């Protein structure tokens, strides 16, 4: 029985030949081994106990200013419907769990790790927050970027002192497209990744203090502006 939302791979006992079935219904198994796959599933790398595994599955990231954080979230995975890709997945991984853990989760971890050098911790929670999510999903789906290191002067987010830091810039071709170190296994196996969602980024203690301080300053500034406008309105 092939349920809606399933892909079933049947391995015949004598020839070892694989049949891939993507349409719901009842099929002859002929004593073969049937392996069921979910066509679409949610992959969690979350710190929350009620999301995915009960253990902490969040991924650590190190930014170019040396600060660390752990990223928690999820991504949707959709398996391919073409038989060639599903046969390759079945031959190399053999189960839903192996595809999710050994392939997709590993690729997501690598993409997160490679995003760290592209920005500072301050940029990741401020002006480049959306870019962080886009970079993770893009590198996981298509392959990690080729990069080049550039030294530049910067203001330390914690001490406000000037320092020389090494930043990483993404290399591009003549048309402006990102250059890749290699093709992602996600693309090679025709797997679809979408709806990457970050539910929390937990920073080092000093960075958390800085974030709260900046948020407090913004609130104070907004209150001052409101009081200033109130005086003129009166």
Quick tags:
9 strands; three-stranded antiparallel beta sheet; four-stranded antiparallel beta sheet; 35% helix; single chain; alpha+beta; 6 helices; 234 residues; elongated
Summarize the structure in words:
It is a single chain. By secondary structure, the protein is α+β, with helices and mostly antiparallel strands. 35% of the residues lie in helices and 29% in strands. The chain is built from six helices and nine strands; from the N terminus they run ββββββααααββαβα. It has helices spanning 83-92, 96-115, 121-125, 129-142, 185-188, 205-233; strands spanning 6-11, 18-21, 33-38, 40-45, 59-62, 68-78, 147-155, 162-170, 192-203. Strands 4, 5, 6 and 9 form a four-stranded antiparallel beta sheet that branches. It has a three-stranded antiparallel beta sheet with strand order 2-1-3, covered by helices on one side. Strand 5 and strand 6 (68-78) form a beta hairpin. Helix 2 (96-115) crosses helix 4 (129-142). The radius of gyration is 24 Å and the shape is elongated.
Quick gist of this model?
The protein has helices at 83-92, 96-115, 121-125, 129-142, 185-188, 205-233, and strands spanning 6-11, 18-21, 33-38, 40-45, 59-62, 68-78, 147-155, 162-170, 192-203.
